[in-house]
Structures are given as C-alpha cells and as structure tokens.
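Researcher: Quick test of sequence recovery. Tokens follow.
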C-alpha cells in the first residue's frame, strides 16, 4: 500500500526492494515513510503487524526503535551544554566521580569524555557485564552504578570506532545528575513533548499498546516458525535504546534535524548552531566513506552524504536516514530482529528519492521585504573601500543588492542581496542576504539631494565613486 504521488515513478522500484528485504529477512510487516521538509510525502506499508491477521502497518503503528534513542540522549547533552551545565569534553569523572573505580586496561579513565561517549570513541566495552542479551536482561540503574568497578576501558581512546551501549547508557545518568530530573522525564519535557512526538515513549500506556506491532524473533536452529519476541526493558541503560515510536513521530524528529540547514529555525529544543554542530563529523574514515557525528552516523554515496541511526532489539528493527542538504530522508520500521536489510533499504530509498527530486528549497517564511526598483535607485552606483575593494550596488533581475565583482575587482561583500527588515526603523538600512555580510545591516548615508554617498557593512566604509 502506498500514499502520496510525488515520487510515483519510483514506487515500483521501492516495492521491489522492500519485498526483497521482507523475503530475505522474513519480515512480517514493514513500514516506510519518505520525508521531505516538514511532511511525509509518501508512505508504504507491506505485510502485517501480527502474523495470521490482515492488519497492515500504518504511520501510527508503534515499534521499539532501540538505538535511535541515542540521538535523543545526545540532544539532551547538547541542551545541557548550551545551558552551561557541562562541556562536551568533560571527562565522565567530572559528573560521575565514582567512575574512578572503573578499570583502564587500555587508554585512560580521564579520556572517557562525554563527546567520546556520544561518538563511540571512548574505548569502553560494548556492554556492562550484567547485560544478558540471551535472557534478555539488563542491569537496573542501581546495579549499574553499584558495579562501576566492573566497567573496563578496553582500547585506547580515538583509536577506532567501537559501538557501546554502555557508554550511552552512562550518559543518561549524567543527564539525571546535571539536570536534577529523571532521564525519561527530561526527554519528555525538553524534547519529545515540545516537538509533538506524542507516541515516542519509554513505556507505552494501554492505548498506545493497542497501536504496537507484534515483534518477532527468528526460529531457533532446526526450527521453522518465527517466534514471539520477548520483552525486556533496558532499565539502567535506557538512554541507549529504550524508546518506542512510529513513522509519524520519527518523521517529525527527522524534520527537526532538517531545521539545522535552514535560514529560519524556530525550534526551542536546540539552536540551529548546536543542531548543525551535532551533524558535523567528529571522526572520519580514512577514505571519507563514513564518519561519526554527535549521536549520528554518516555515510557517503558518491557526492551524497547522509546521516543515519538504526536500532535493533528483540522483535524490532528500525532505521532513519536523511540528508540535511536535500531536506529529504526515509524511516523504516520492521517487526523482526535481527533484520539487516532495513538498514540498507532506508539508504537505498533515500538516495533514489534525492536523485529523482533533488534538493527541497526552503519555504520562504521570512518577514523581510524586497526593495522596489524605484526605492533602490538612490543607492545604485559603484563604491570603493579601503584598502582597495570595489563593489557595485545594483538592481538586476528584479532584485536589489551588491553585484558580482567586475574583472580585476577585489571584492569583500558581493554578490549579496539587500532587503528591507520591518523591525529596523532606519532610513537607508537594509538587511544583507547571503555572502560574507549575511544577516548584517548595510547602512547607507545620504546626501541632501537624497542620493547615497556611502555605506557601511561589516566594519568597512564604502564611498561612492560614480
């Protein structure tokens, strides 16, 4: 089943590779959302939420999304940094002094920083010894904190990417220590509730459980039938993977990520600057084919770089892949684990859509106003500034601004647009759009005849020369 027509030409190929994934991994139900900007432009549903029932998944169908939780945890750490309550390069010891009893078999305890914990370069072992994926069973918060002596740093920091649920689980306790609020409550109050992620929860209420897909495990050796997957809460390492969610909510979470690439960023959850910092590579592979950002992985396909994070836990596999530059991404949820193909599937579909549709332009939500040709006339001309920079103030192709440099010109500020900002009550003052002076005021001084004689921008005084 599919909804949305913007990528209708791709639907046969999407259906083909989705059905191939289902066959290869024996996936009972598959839920796929294609996100562009602030909305799901196409949704695809395959199979069933529960074997033996005609119950296709919907965008509201809830799954455990496991390690996608880590991206919420990283966001919380960035929020607390922005409030001045911690620094990303703080050693874990600063916020968890008892960590001094852990063991540095390789590397150092001081080298276990918050940034390295978020990026999987801390050198910590993958799991706490009390974690038992076979049972399954995970340590309580009390057991985790009472058994810090059992935690080992097993490789030197920064020597290789080493995925660690334990590392991100510990960050949840840092969030509690620094904020004074339970980790789960903090995520609800500061992240999911403000973004309207109403079905993104650590534990589901009875109504939400009615929306949950049934999770399955593969047969044991020698058996043929899929099994109902067991449920075990992550308890003391909840920050590493306890969340449940659905395509609808994860699409909103993805759209929030897109806002780091927009000129207008209205969210109070995280500033555009901090969100962009979160998306920048902290570590890169030697061949630049992949990297690790704060909370997000990065993969390169040709000229296309996409962020991603997947999740896998008993009964459920998930992945979300997106390109901030293209404002496009894909969410995939499956109700079986392990299921390796959804991770490739999300990336394959995202690349297809981006190649087909290209970059999504940013909606024009600005209150800035264009300048008419008549109003621009007094300012048009050629200007010069020390130590020898020229720029033309022009009205071209229906737009007012600083022109492209002429041959031989040394230019500092052109080309760039100039627009009216209604919040600025100053004659001859225009907001600069693009270029070195983006966001700054270009302030003209006028002669008594009303014609501009000079302007200031970015510390430079430009004088009219004709």
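Model:
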């Amino acid at each position: 089943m599919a909804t949305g027509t913007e990528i209708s030409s791709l639907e046969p190929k999407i259906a083909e590779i989705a059905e191939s994934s289902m066959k290869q991994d024996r996936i009972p139900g598959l839920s796929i959302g294609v996100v562009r900007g602030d909305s799901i432009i196409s949704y695809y549903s395959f199979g069933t939420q529960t074997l033996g029932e005609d119950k296709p998944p919907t965008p509201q169908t809830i799954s455990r999304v496991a390690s996608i939780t880590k991206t919420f945890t990283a966001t919380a750490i960035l929020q607390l940094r922005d409030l001045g309550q911690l620094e990303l390069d703080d050693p874990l010891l600063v916020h968890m002094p008892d960590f001094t009893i852990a063991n540095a078999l390789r590397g150092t305890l001081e080298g276990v920083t918050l940034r390295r914990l978020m990026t999987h370069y801390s050198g910590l072992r993958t799991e706490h010894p009390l974690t038992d994926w076979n049972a399954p069973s995970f340590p309580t918060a009390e057991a985790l904190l009472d058994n810090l002596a059992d935690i080992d740093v097993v490789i030197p920091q920064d020597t290789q990417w080493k995925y660690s649920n334990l590392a991100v689980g510990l960050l949840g306790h840092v969030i509690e220590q620094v904020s004074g609020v339970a980790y789960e409550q903090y995520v609800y109050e500061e992240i999911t509730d403000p973004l309207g992620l109403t079905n993104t929860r650590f534990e589901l209420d009875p109504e939400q459980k009615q929306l949950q897909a049934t999770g399955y495990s593969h047969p044991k050796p020698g058996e043929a039938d899929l099994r109902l997957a067991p449920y075990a809460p992550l308890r003391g390492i909840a920050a590493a993977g306890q969340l449940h969610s659905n395509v609808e909510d994860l699409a909103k979470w993805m759209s929030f990520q897109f806002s780091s690439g927009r000129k207008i960023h209205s969210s109070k959850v995280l500033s555009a600057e901090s969100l962009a910092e979160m998306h920048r590579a902290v570590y890169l592979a030697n061949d630049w084919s992949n990297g690790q950002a704060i909370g997000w992985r990065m993969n390169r396909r040709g000229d296309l770089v996409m962020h991603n994070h997947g999740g896998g836990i008993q009964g459920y596999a998930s992945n979300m892949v997106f390109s901030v530059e293209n404002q496009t991404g894909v969410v995939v949820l499956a109700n079986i684990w392990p299921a390796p193909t959804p991770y490739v599937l999300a990336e394959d579909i995202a690349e297809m859509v981006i190649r087909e549709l290209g970059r999504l332009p940013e909606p024009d939500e600005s209150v800035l106003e264009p300048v008419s040709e008549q109003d621009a006339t007094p300012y048009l001309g050629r200007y010069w500034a020390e130590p020898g920079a020229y720029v033309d103030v022009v009205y071209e192709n229906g737009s007012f601004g600083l022109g492209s440099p002429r041959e031989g010109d040394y230019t500092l500020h052109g080309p760039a647009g100039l627009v009216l900002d209604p919040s600025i009550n100053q004659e001859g003052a225009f907001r600069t759009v693009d270029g070195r002076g983006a966001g700054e005021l270009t302030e003209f001084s006028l002669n008594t005849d009303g014609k501009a004689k000079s302007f200031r921008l970015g510390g430079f005084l430009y004088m009219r020369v004709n």
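The chain has two domains: 1-364, 373-464.
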